[in-house]
Amino acid sequence: MNYLLLLIIIYLIAGIKVVKQYDRRVIFTFGKYTKTLSPGFRFVWPIIQSSQNVDIREKAVDVPSQEAMTKDNISCNINAVIYYRIKEDQVDRSVINVKHLDYAMTQFALTTMRNIVWQFELDELLAKREQASHKIKEIVDEKSDSWWVDVLSVELKDINIPENLKRTIWKQAEAEREKRAKIITSEWELAAAENLKKAAEIIGKAPGALHLRTLQSMNDMSSDQSNKIVWMLPIEVLDAIKGIGKLAEKVK
Question: Against a cut of 0.85, is the pTM above it?
Fold first, then answer.
């Protein structure tokens, strides 16, 4: 009798389960789904019932790096990470409808990534990474609806291309920068020439403007003691001074 009582006590203790706040426990009675246990102290009949614990927290699943071909036939290696959460109101479906959920999500994401990368050229893929990630998320989310999984986001982490292609892209980018620099310089020179042309036209129309401009330039240079001003006179002026000198001698 004592042994029987001891066995009953052990049986009852074995059925006590603690369900954590972030867990749900799916109960099967004789192999058939019965209910889902919420957090707290719960009891599961050993032998008669079996249970499986399900974590409803957000999960991050790493999608391994794989080789994919872009639309312009360039091979690259890409990897990603999937963030998802099992829907709390349908936890049992994620257990019944799919085995090894993380593995299933990873494998489906691998196939989807290859299909999405094929739709982009390499330059577009590098520039529109978020758009590609969004497309992958939409497809994976639609597929995982039957597993009662809510895909929160899919992020492309790395897009690796061959080293020789990296050097080619670097040269192309450098040439593009030089092109923009020369265009900007030429536009600046054109604007400066236009302004100088307008200034020359204004000075030419105003009597004495050129003389005033010359005096202003001399004043600007004289503000710095280290500057030396060399005043150049036209030869005609010197000839005129000599002529005035000769004329003064004749008058005497």
Answer: no
**Does the domain formed by 59-161 have CATH 3.30.479.30?**
yes
Q: Any idea where the domains of the chain sit in the sequence?
A: 2-55, 59-161, 163-204
DSSP structure string for the chain: -HHHHHHHHHHHHHTEEEE-TTEEEEEEETTEEEEEEPSEEEE--TTTEEEEEEE-S-EEEEEEEEEEE-TTS-EEEEEEEEEEEE-GGGHHHHHHS-SSHHHHHHHHHHHHHHHHHTTS-HHHHHH-HHHHHHHHHHHHHHHHGGGTEEEEEEEEEEEE--HHHHHHHHHHHHHHHHHHHHHHHHHHHHHHHHHHHHHHHHHHHSTTHHHHHHHHHHHHHHTSTT--------HHHHHHHHHHHHHHHHH-
Read off the pLDDT of residues 106-151 as tens digits, 9 standing for 90 and up: 888 888 888 888 888 887 887 888 888 888 888 888 888 878 888 8
